[in-house]
C-alpha cells in the first residue's frame, strides 16, 4: 500500500500466474491513429451537457475519443486518490477549489500552459476569484468551467402577508434583521430568515461581509479569533435568539431549503445551484424570487466553481490540456448554460442560463461576481472544516458561549494549519 | 492431498501419518482456498497497513518512519476517547436487538403458522431498502416538530426531544435505527439456525406437555445457541465498527450532537480519508482492532457456559 | 384434546398479532421508498412530508433508465454477485467444516486470525487490495471486482457454527464406512446445513449487490460498472433528485427480493432434511 507502484511480493507472484490477462487499461492510444482521453466527473445532472461538449470536441479533433467516467461525489476523492497512487489517474478530471491545492501541492497536476497557448490561456474571461483559486506557485492549473454565488431567496407571498417591502440591492444587514422579525409568525410556524450554520451559503458570507475572515490570505492563521469574524457569527446567532430564525435543532431536522420550499421560511441564503430544484416547486415558481445578499460593512459573496485539471500521468499532455481548456471554454459554456444546471464560467455565456427561469432575477447571482471571495481553503481544508463542525454548532445551539467556542476553534484550526505547513 | 491416489506410496504414508496426521492434512487442505484468498486480500493488506501506522504517509504515498508517534497522538486526541465511548454505548444498546430478533424468528418458524413465507418476505424488506431511504424516513419520524414519534408521544402528554440534534438523545435515536436495521439480518440468521433443529425434538417436548415458553427455553434456545453465539459475536464486531448509519443520519447539516454520536470508525474515516492522514487513521483502526479482539475473546471464553455444540 | 387445540389456536392468533405489528414497523420505510419514487422533487423535500403524491410521477422510472445504462450494470452486478456467492458457498463451507469437525494443529490460531480480519474497517484495506488487483493486471475487469469478495471470514465463521451444531455420531458413522472428509462434507454434512448455506447465499448476494466503494475504485469504464455506484451517482453534491433515486433503488432491488424468495424455499426444505437425520 505505502509506496506507489511498488509491487507487492504476493501480488507479483499472482501477476506471474495471470500474465496473459495483463491488459493495457484505459486507451493510451498508441501510435498515430486514435487517441482516448479519460475524463472523470461527478454530477449526474451535468452529465448530458458534458457529453454534448465532449462530442463537439471529438468532432473538432478527428481521431480523438473522450471516455467520460461518472463517479458519485461521495466516493470521488477516494477514487481519484487511489487511482493517482496506482498511477492510473484519468487524463482530465473535475477539481473543486477545496481539493485543488492538495493535488497541486503534491505534484499530481500539470499546468495548462503549452507551447501552443503560451501567450494566453484566456484567464481574463473568467471570474478573477476562481482564476486565483486554481493557480499554484504562479502557474495556472485549471480554469473554472462553472461558478456559483449565493443569493437572498425570498417568498413574496409571505412578504405581502406581513406587509414588508421586498428585498433589493439597497438592503443592509439591519434591513435584513428588521424584516426577519416582522416576517416571523409563530402561530403559522413561519420564520423570517434561516441563520444557518452552513458555510458557503450562510455564515462564511456574513463573515466576509463584515470584513472578517475564515483563514488568513497566507493560509497560515485561523480567522476565528478575529473580532469581526466573531461579530458576524454573533449577528447570526442573535437572530436565532430573538426567534426570527428557526433554531439550530429545527434546521437540522427539516433543512432550510425544505422549510423555504414549504412556505415556512420567508428568506434564506441559498446558492445559485438550487435554481433547478426551486424551479420544480410550484409555490416558489409562483411566489419565489432572488436578489443579492444584504450589505454588511461591505459586500461579499463566497464563490466556488469546478475546474478542469490535467493529471501529471497523462500520456497525451498537449491534447489533454487542449481538452481541459475546451471544457472550460466558450462553447462548453454555452452548452452548459442551455442545460440550465450551473452558471458557466466563461464570461458572457450565462445568457441562456438566465433565460431558463425568467420569473426570477437570476442576474443577481452574476451581479455579485465583482466582489466574490473564493471559498476559503488550504491544502488540507477538510482538517479544519472538521474543527468548525466540532466547535461552532455548540455555540449555534446555545450549549457554549460564542467567545469560548470561537477561541477553541481558532486554537484547533491553528494547530491543523501548523501541521499542514510541516507536512506539505 | 494426493495421499489417497497413490496406491503404493499411499498406504505407507498413510501408516506413517496415522489417523491424526491424515485428519490434519485434510484440515489444511480444506481451509487452503479460503486461507490463500484471505491471506492475499486481507491478511497481507492488514500487515502492510500495520506497517504504515508506524509511519507518516502522504495523501499520494511516500512513507516516513515515525515509530510510535501516531499511537502517542491517539492518547492526546480528545476525540478518540469520546468516539470510543460513543461506539461502546451504541454497541450496548444494539445488543437489545438480538433477543427481539430471536423471538420474531421463533414465531416465523412456527410449524403451523399460516402465511409464513409472506411474513418472511416482509421481514426481509428492511434489508433491501435503500439506506438513503431508511435515513430519510427515520429523519422524518424523529423530526422534533413534524415527526410521528413526537406526535405519538404528544398524545400521551410527553414533549418529545429534537432527537437527532440533542446531544443527550441523538445516540439513542441512532441506536434505535441501528436495531431496526439489523433485525432483518439477524432474523435471517436465526430462522436458518432454527430450521436446523429437528422437528422430532419439538414433538417430543410437546408430548411431554411442555408449553411454548418452556419449549423455547428448554429445547429451542440450547439447540440454536451456536447461531445465537454467532449473531452475538458479529453484532458486537459490527456495532463497534458502526459508521455508515451515523454518517447518513448526521451529515446532512452541521449538528451540535456530532461529538456525542461520532463513532470511532467515523473518526477513522474522517482522519484517514477526509483529512488525508491515512497512517494516523491506521493507528485508530488498530486501536479499535485490539479492543474488538478483547471483546471477542471474552465472548469465546464465556461461550462454554451457554453454547451447546452437540 | 380440544383444550389443546384451543391453546394452539390462541397461540397462533397471538403470533399473528405480534408478527403483523412487527411487519408493519419493518415495512414502512420500504413503502416510503415506493411513495417517494412517485413524487415530484418538490413533494419529496416538503416538510412535513405529504403522504401521497398529488399526481404519481411514473416518469421517474423512465428517467432512471435514461440516466443509467441499466442493462449492462445489471449484467455486471449479477455476474459479480453470482460469482462471489457460489465461491463463498464452496470455500466457506469447506473451511467451516474443517474448523468445526476436523482436528489439526494450529486450528484455533488460524481461526482466530480469520476472525480478526472482521475487526478491521474495510475502508482501510481498499488501497492495498487495489494494488494487488493492479499487479495481477485485473483493474477495470469484472473478475477484478469479484475476486477479493470470493473469500470470507464471516461466511467461514457462520458455517462453522452450523457444522458444529450437528451431532458427532454423523461423521463417526461415515468414517467407519471408510469415507474421507471431503466425501463426508459433500454427502453427509452439506445437506444438513442447507439453511445455513441459504442464509449465507442471501447475505453474500445482498452484500455484493450493494457493494459500492470497491467496484468504483477498480472500474473505470462505464460499461463495466455495477449498479450500486450507478445509483450513488444519482446523488449529487448539493441537490439530489430523491424520487428518481428511489425509483432506481426499487428497480435494482427486485432481483434481490427474487433471490430471497427462491432461497427461502431452501430454508423450508432444510427442515425436512435435518428432521430425517436428526
Report a brief summary of the structure.
With 424 residues, chain A is an alpha/beta fold. Helix content of chain A is 45%, strand content 14%. Chain A has two domains: 34-148 and 304-348, Periplasmic binding protein-like II (D-Maltodextrin-Binding Protein, domain 2); 150-303 and 376-423, Periplasmic binding protein-like II (D-Maltodextrin-Binding Protein, domain 2), CATH 3.40.190.
Give an account of the 3D structure:
The complex is a heterotrimer of chains A (424), B (310) and C (278). With 424 residues, chain A is an alpha/beta fold. Chain A folds into 2 domains: 34-148 and 304-348, D-Maltodextrin-Binding Protein, domain 2 (3-Layer(aba) Sandwich); 150-303 and 376-423, Periplasmic binding protein-like II (D-Maltodextrin-Binding Protein, domain 2), CATH 3.40.190. Helix content of chain A is 45%, strand content 14%. A 5-stranded mixed β-sheet of chain A has the order 2-1-3-13-4. A 4-stranded mixed β-sheet of chain A has the order 9-10-8-11. Chain A has a two-stranded antiparallel sheet with strand order 5-6. In chain A, strand 5 and strand 6 (139-140) form a beta hairpin. The two termini of chain A are 20 Å apart. Residues 1-31 of chain A have low confidence and may be disordered. By secondary structure, chain B is mostly helical. Chain B has 2 domains: 2-52; 71-306, MetI-like (MetI-like fold, Orthogonal Bundle). Chain B contains 14 helices and 2 strands. Chain B has helices at 7-52, 69-76, 78-94, 97-108, 116-128, 131-141, 148-155, 170-195, 199-207, 212-240, 244-250, 258-261, 264-274, 278-306; strands at residues 55-57, 63-65. Chain B has a two-stranded antiparallel sheet. In chain B, a hairpin with a 5-residue loop joins strand 1 (55-57) and strand 2. Chain C is mainly α and 278 residues long. Chain C starts with a helix and ends with a helix. In chain C, 74% of the residues lie in helices and 0% in strands. Chain C has a domain at 68-233: MetI-like fold (Orthogonal Bundle). Chain C has helices at 2-37, 41-44, 59-67, 70-101, 107-117, 126-136, 142-146, 153-164, 169-176, 181-192, 194-210, 213-218, 227-232, 242-277. Chain C contains 14 helices and no strands. Classes of the chains: A alpha/beta (424), B mainly alpha (310), C mainly alpha (278).
Amino acid at each position: 500500500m505505502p509506496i506507489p507502484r511498488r509491487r507487492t511480493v504476493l501480488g507479483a507472484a499472482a501477476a506471474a500466474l495471470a500474465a496473459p490477462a495483463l491488459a493495457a487499461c484505459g486507451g493510451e492510444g498508441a501510435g498515430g491513429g486514435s487517441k482516448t482521453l479519460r475524463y472523470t466527473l461527478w454530477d449526474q445532472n451535468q452529465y448530458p451537457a458534458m457529453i454534448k461538449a465532449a462530442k463537439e470536441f471529438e468532432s473538432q479533433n478527428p481521431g480523438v475519443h473522450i471516455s467520460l467516467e461518472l463517479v458519485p461525489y461521495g466516493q470521488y476523492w477516494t477514487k481519484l486518490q487511489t487511482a493517482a497512487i496506482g498511477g492510473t489517474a484519468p487524463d482530465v478530471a473535475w477539481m473543486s477549489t477545496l481539493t485543488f491545492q492538495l493535488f497541486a501541492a503534491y505534484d499530481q497536476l500539470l499546468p495548462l500552459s503549452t507551447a501552443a497557448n503560451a501567450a494566453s490561456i484566456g484567464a481574463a474571461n473568467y471570474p478573477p476569484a476562481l482564476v486565483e483559486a486554481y493557480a499554484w506557485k504562479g502557474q495556472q492549473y485549471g480554469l473554472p468551467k462553472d461558478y456559483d454565488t449565493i443569493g437572498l431567496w425570498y417568498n413574496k407571498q409571505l412578504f405581502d402577508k406581513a406587509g414588508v417591502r421586498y428585498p433589493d440591492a439597497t438592503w443592509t444587514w439591519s434591513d435584513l434583521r428588521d424584516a426577519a422579525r416582522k416576517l416571523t409568525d409563530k402561530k403559522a410556524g413561519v420564520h423570517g430568515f434561516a441563520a444557518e450554520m452552513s458555510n458557503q451559503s450562510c455564515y462564511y458570507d456574513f463573515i466576509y461581509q463584515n470584513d472578517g475572515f475564515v483563514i488568513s490570505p497566507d493560509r497560515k492563521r485561523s480567522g476565528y479569533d478575529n473580532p469581526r469574524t466573531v461579530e458576524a457569527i454573533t449577528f447570526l446567532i442573535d437572530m436565532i435568539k430573538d426567534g426570527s430564525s428557526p433554531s439550530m435543532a429545527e434546521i437540522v431536522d427539516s433543512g432550510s431549503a425544505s422549510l423555504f420550499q414549504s412556505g415556512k421560511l420567508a428568506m434564506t441564503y441559498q446558492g445559485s445551484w438550487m435554481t433547478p430544484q426551486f424551479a420544480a416547486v410550484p409555490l416558489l415558481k409562483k411566489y419565489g424570487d432572488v436578489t443579492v445578499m444584504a450589505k454588511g460593512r461591505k459586500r461579499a459573496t463566497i464563490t466556488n466553481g469546478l475546474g478542469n485539471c490535467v493529471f501529471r500521468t497523462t500520456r497525451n499532455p498537449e491534447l489533454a490540456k487542449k481538452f481541459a481548456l475546451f471544457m472550460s471554454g466558450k462553447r462548453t459554456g454555452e452548452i452548459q448554460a442551455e442545460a440550465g444546471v450551473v452558471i458557466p464560467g466563461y464570461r458572457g455565456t450565462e445568457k441562456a442560463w438566465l433565460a431558463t427561469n425568467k420569473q426570477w432575477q437570476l442576474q443577481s447571482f452574476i451581479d455579485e461576481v465583482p466582489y466574490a471571495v473564493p471559498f476559503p481553503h488550504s491544502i488540507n481544508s477538510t482538517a479544519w472544516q472538521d474543527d468548525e463542525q466540532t466547535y461552532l454548532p455548540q455555540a449555534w445551539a446555545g450549549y457554549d458561549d460564542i467567545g469560548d467556542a470561537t477561541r477553541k476553534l481558532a486554537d484547533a484550526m491553528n494547530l491543523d494549519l501548523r501541521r499542514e505547513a510541516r507536512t506539505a | 492431498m494426493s495421499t489417497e491416489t497413490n496406491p503404493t506410496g499411499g498406504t505407507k504414508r498413510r501408516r506413517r501419518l496415522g489417523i491424526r496426521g491424515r485428519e490434519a492434512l485434510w484440515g489444511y487442505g480444506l481451509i487452503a482456498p479460503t486461507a490463500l484468498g484471505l491471506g492475499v486480500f486481507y491478511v497481507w493488506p492488514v500487515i502492510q497497513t500495520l506497517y504504515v501506522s508506524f509511519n507518516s504517509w502522504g495523501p499520494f504515498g511516500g512513507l516516513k518512519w515515525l515509530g510510535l508517534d501516531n499511537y502517542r497522538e491517539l492518547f492526546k486526541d480528545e476525540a478518540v476517547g469520546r468516539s470510543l465511548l460513543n461506539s461502546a454505548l451504541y454497541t450496548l444498546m444494539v445488543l437489545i436487538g438480538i433477543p427481539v430478533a430471536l423471538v420474531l424468528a421463533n414465531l416465523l418458524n412456527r410449524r403451523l403458522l399460516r402465511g409464513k413465507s409472506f411474513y418472511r418476505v416482509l421481514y426481509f424488506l428492511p434489508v433491501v431498502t435503500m439506506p438513503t431511504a431508511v435515513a430519510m424516513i427515520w429523519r422524518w419520524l424523529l423530526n422534533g416538530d413534524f415527526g410521528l414519534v413526537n406526535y405519538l408521544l404528544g398524545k400521551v402528554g410527553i414533549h418529545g426531544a429534537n432527537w437527532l440534534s440533542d446531544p443527550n438523545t441523538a445516540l439513542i435515536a441512532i441506536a434505535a435505527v441501528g436495531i431496526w436495521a439489523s433485525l432483518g439480518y439477524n432474523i435471517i440468521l436465526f430462522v436458518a439456525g432454527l430450521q436446523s433443529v429437528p422437528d422430532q425434538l419439538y414433538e417430543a417436548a410437546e408430548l411431554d406437555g411442555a408449553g411454548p415458553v418452556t419449549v423455547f427455553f428448554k429445547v429451542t434456545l440450547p439447540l440454536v445457541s451456536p447461531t445465537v453465539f454467532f449473531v452475538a459475536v458479529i453484532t458486537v464486531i459490527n456495532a463497534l465498527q458502526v459508521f455508515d448509519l451515523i454518517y447518513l443520519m448526521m451529515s446532512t447539516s452541521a449538528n451540535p450532537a456530532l461529538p456525542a454520536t461520532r463513532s470511532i470508525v467515523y473518526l477513522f474515516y474522517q482522519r484517514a480519508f477526509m483529512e488525508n492522514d491515512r497512517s494516523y487513521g491506521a493507528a485508530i483502526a488498530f486501536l479499535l482492532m485490539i479492543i474488538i479482539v478483547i471483546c471477542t475473546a471474552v465472548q469465546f471464553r464465556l461461550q462454554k457456559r451457554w453454547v451447546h455444540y452437540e | 384434546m380440544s383444550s389443546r387445540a384451543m391453546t394452539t389456536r390462541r397461540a397462533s392468533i397471538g403470533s399473528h398479532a405480534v408478527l403483523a405489528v412487527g411487519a408493519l414497523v419493518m415495512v414502512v420505510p420500504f413503502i416510503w421508498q415506493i411513495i417517494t419514487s412517485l413524487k415530484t422533487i418538490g413533494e419529496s423535500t416538503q416538510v412535513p412530508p405529504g403522504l401521497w403524491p398529488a399526481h404519481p410521477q411514473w416518469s421517474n422510472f423512465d428517467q432512471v433508465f435514461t440516466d443509467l445504462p441499466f442493462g449492462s450494470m445489471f449484467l455486471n452486478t449479477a455476474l459479480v454477485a453470482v460469482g462471489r456467492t457460489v465461491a463463498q458457498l464452496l470455500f466457506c463451507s469447506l473451511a467451516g467444516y474443517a474448523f468445526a469437525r476436523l482436528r489439526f494443529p494450529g486450528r484455533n490460531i488460524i481461526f482466530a486470525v480469520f476472525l480478526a480480519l472482521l475487526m478491521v474497517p474495510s475502508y482501510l484495506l481498499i488501497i492495498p487490495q487495489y494494488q494487488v488487483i493492479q499487479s495481477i493486471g485485473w483493474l477495470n475487469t469484472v473478475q477484478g471486482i469479484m475476486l477479493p469478495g470470493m473469500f470470507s471470514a464471516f461466511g467461514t465463521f457462520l458455517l462453522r457454527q452450523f457444522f458444529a451444531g450437528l451431532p458427532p455420531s454423523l461423521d463417526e458413522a461415515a468414517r467407519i464406512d471408510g469415507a474421507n472428509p471431503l466425501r463426508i462434507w459433500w454427502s453427509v454434512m452439506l445437506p444438513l446445513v442447507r439453511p445455513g448455506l441459504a442464509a449465507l447465499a442471501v447475505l453474500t448476494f445482498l452484500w455484493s449487490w450493494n457493494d459500492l466503494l470497491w467496484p468504483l475504485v477498480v472500474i473505470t469504464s462505464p460499461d463495466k460498472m455495477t449498479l450500486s455506484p450507478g445509483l450513488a451517482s444519482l446523488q449529487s453534491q448539493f441537490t439530489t433528485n430523491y424520487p428518481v433515486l428511489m425509483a432506481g433503488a426499487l428497480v435494482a432491488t427486485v432481483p434481490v427480493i427474487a433471490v430471497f424468495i427462491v432461497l427461502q424455499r431452501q430454508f423450508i426444505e432444510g427442515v425436512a432434511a435435518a428432521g430425517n437425520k436428526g
